[in-house]
Amino acid sequence: MGGEGIGVQFDEASICNGKLKPNPSSPLDNKPNVQWLVKDVEEGNFRNFVLKLVLKRKVPTILDMFEERVVPESIIIIDGYPPYPGPLLNLDLAMKW
Fold this sequence. Notes:
Low-confidence stretches: none
Protein name: ISXO2-like transposase domain-containing protein
Largest sheet: 6 strands, mixed
Oligomer: single chain
Organism: Vairimorpha ceranae (strain BRL01)
C-alpha cells in the first residue's frame, strides 16, 4: 500500500461496551471491554484500504501494521496522536498531520 509520494491515511476508532467511539481518548487505552479498529486508506484513484481489529492501539501494534502493509517512501497522514510520530520517524516514510 502506498509508494513513492502516495499518501496513506491512518486512523483509529474504538468500540467500547457495544458503542463506536470515532474520536477515542487516551483513557480508553486501559479500559476493559474496548476493541480497537485501525485503518489505513491509500489516497488516489483506487483507495486501497486495510481495516484491522486490534486489542490495543499501542505503538508496537501500529508499527507492525505499517511495516507489514505500507511501502517505503509513502507519505503517512496521521491525526497527531502523541505516541505515533516519534516511532514512525524511524521508518522510511514521510509524515504529515
